[in-house]
Amino acid sequence: MSHSDPGTQTETATVGSSSEDLSDLLVSQQVSYRQLLYLRFLRNKLAVAGFWILAILYVVALGAEFFAPYDKITRFGDILAPPRLPRFVDADGRFHLRPFVYAHEKGRDPETLRRTYVADTTERYPLGLFVRGDEYEFLFIKSNVHLFGVEGAEVFLLGTDNQGRDLFSRVIYGARLSTTIGLCGVAISLVLGIIIGMISGYLGGIVDQAIQRGIEVLLSFPSIPLWLALSALLPLDWSPRRIFFFITIILSILNWGSLARIVRGLTLSVKNEEYVLSARMGGGGRWWIIRRHFFPANLSYAIVAATLSVPEMILGETALSFLGLGLRPPAVSWGVLLQASQKVSVLGVAPWLVSPVAFVIVTVLAFNFVGDGLRDAVDPHSRF
User: Fold this and answer.
1) Residue 112 CB-half CA count within 13 A
2) Per-residue pLDDT tens for 184-212?
3) Are 136 and 74 in contact (CB under 8 A)?
4) Packing angle between helix 22-29 and helix 33-43, nearest 10 degrees?
């Protein structure tokens, strides 16, 4: 009769255990696959932080009319004014619980003839919430209430541009186009990559060779000359919406090839699995097998790959617009805003014009963190 050592008995698994693999956790805790993915994703703190950053970003971009203190085309007399940030301590060193701003007096440097802005410390203007300002229409609702603002003065968190428009408000409006291009482009690439990749991997033979050679030709196109050629095809009288749609289609066509290769490899790995062979011997048609077996097997990895490709779409739009090959004024995107920073002379006078770069960097990093978290969550060899 054998006696088991209490020290060697299998302990009850806990959610925080890092020594259990996938099968042990599913058996001991009866955790579903979706719950396991969720718990794995929560373990990655950077991925969770990136998710919340993206959630806040898209909410703000969706309600840009409300969150922006001013309209994107509202002009002020303060041209290339420096950032005017809220303060808690006044000029006399006294602390105030409610943030405030000082009005600025405009002047001109007698030597360089540049505009100067000097804070007028004689009167404080408190910062308020739900302040009335520029009228707007959002979801068929007309209003003039903004999240924050200052009555009697202006608050320029990122300064103004060369036409006196609030740069922070324009960055919020620009987030709507820049981030939407990434999602729309990836959605199109996801559909093309999954369908073509599964067809290539499952059918094989001449079809696979033709598709792979076509992908190689597509990926071999140099980006800059191609963008220049496409830019020459864009009529100058096109509306920003048509340009937006055209750029989304082009970026999608250029980016589905890599995803299709990933899906093809995953399809080849499960093509000869027993359940696929059983379905084929049982009379299952090609499209039925692709829809019922290959599509679920590839979807999770395709979503991860698509998440990691969203930053490429955003950077692609930003680069195109920055070079003047993409969106054009009066459209507002992060790339369009960065066009004003192309001249070194302007940067010497107003370095805050490059502030949209910070939003691009944060957004790209957040997408990369979320993509890494999803990749680790769906990895069957990942340890919980």
Assistant:
1) 7
2) 878 888 888 888 888 888 888 899 999 99
3) no
4) 120
Asked if residue 278 and residue 315 are part of one domain, the reply reads yes
Assign residue 276 a region (left: φ > 0; alpha: ψ between -120 and 50; beta: otherwise). Answer: alpha
What angle in degrees, to the nearest 10, is found between the helix axes of 167-203 and 205-219? 150
Q: Are residues 134 and 238 in the same domain?
A: no
How many distinct structural domains can be found in the chain?
A: 2
Residue 239 covered by a domain: yes
Q: Quick: pLDDT tens for 244-262.
A: 777 778 777 777 888 888 8
Residues 184 and 89 reside in one and the same domain: no
Q: Yes or no: say if 170 and 254 are a contact pair by the CB < 8 Å rule.
A: no
Contact 127, 99 (CB under 8 A): yes
**Within this chain, do residues 96 and 184 fall inside the same structural domain, yes or no?**
no
The token duo for 234 is: 């864009």
For residues 335 and 244, the answer to whether their CB atoms sit within 8 Å is: no
pTM of the complete model beyond 0.70:
yes
Cα(130)–Cα(150) distance, integer angstroms: 10
Domain presence at residue 101: yes
Q: Is 233 found in the same domain as 99?
A: no
Determine, yes or no, domain membership for 267: yes
**What are the residues facing 301 on neighbouring strands?**
none
Q: Which two tokens stand for residue 365?
A: 């990093």
Q: Do 117 and 205 share a domain, yes or no?
A: no
Query: Distance between CA atoms of 22 and 380, rounded to whole angstroms?
Result: 7
Is-cis flag, bond preceding 222, omega within 30? no
- The β-bridge partners of 118 are 105
Q: Which range marks the domain in which residue 108 is found?
A: 76-163
Taking all residues of the chain, what is their mean pLDDT, rounded to a whole number? 80
Indicate whether 293 belongs to any domain: yes
Domain boundary among 163, 190, 222: 163
Scanning the structure block, which residue is given the tokens 């009288």?
A: 237
In the chain, the amino acid numbered 56 is I
Handedness of CA 362, 368, 370, 373 (dihedral sign): negative
